[in-house]
């Protein structure tokens, strides 16, 4: 019986050298990727009181707005699509259709309520209540109208519904801005409110047509949407 006391297959003694074809298995024993991770996690923050009160974080750390899901460039891109109501629904970008962002809708709802407050109308509670009840009702209705894929993902469809309704709320913010300087409780205000409601309805119906993949049902989808946006238009018109 003979023992190989650390002998190299190529001759001599020493540690065994693996062949070039040898690959380290990918798993918990892969030590090649650990130094970078350890360096990232063990890199200390700069000391001092001013640094403790500042917004500085670890190196290579994502910005705070990006971590919580607020992307202003994406909000601007989706807002531009809302401002083009005559655009074909099948030409909308895929990332816009599948988006579930709620930062933009919250901004527009706060803007709408603030502009109404500037006109002497305190309707924040009505805005949140109608928005929540209308979103739930429209989600239930659109889920019944959609295909089987949308019915299998109710939570994702609800977030898309809230996102689309909120983004297409922007024209009503313009209506409330007009109401700050001019009274809307007249024939001119009624006509202007009708135009903005049709704008919101047509933009949102285009988004929902693309999401639900219903090419010939845009008018049918637009009917409940027009009722939803008309309630907010009435808030902007009457005291």
Description of the molecule:
- The chain has a domain of about 140 residues.
- With about 240 residues, the chain is an all-alpha fold.
- The protein is globular.
- Helix content is about 60%, strand content about 0%.
- It starts with about 35 loop residues before the first helix and ends with a helix.
- The longest helix has 26 residues.
- Helix 10 packs antiparallel against helix 11.
- About 10% of the residues have low confidence.
- Its main location: Golgi.
- Keywords: Membrane, Transmembrane, Transmembrane helix.
- This is Protein YIP.
- It is a multi-pass membrane protein.
Helix and strand arrangement:
Layout (H helix, E strand, L loop, with lengths): L33 H9 L6 H5 L10 H4 L4 H11 L11 H4 L5 H16 L5 H22 L2 H5 L1 H14 L2 H12 L5 H26 L5 H20 L2
Helix pairs in contact: 6-9, 6-10, 7-9, 7-12, 9-11, 10-11, 10-12, 11-12
Key words describing this protein structure:
239 residues; single chain; mainly alpha
Short description:
With 239 residues, the chain is mostly helical. The chain has helices at 34-42, 49-53, 64-67, 72-82, 94-97, 103-118, 124-145, 148-152, 154-167, 170-181, 187-212, 218-237.
Strand element count: 0
Radius of gyration: 29 Å
Structural class: mainly alpha
* Alpha plus pi helix count: 12
Largest sheet: none
Strand content: under 5%
Residue-averaged pLDDT: 75
Low-confidence stretches: 11-16, 22-41
SSE run: HHHHHHHHHHHH
Give the distance, in angstroms, between the N- and C-terminal Cα atoms: 102 Å
> What proportion of the residues is helical, as a percent range?
55-70%
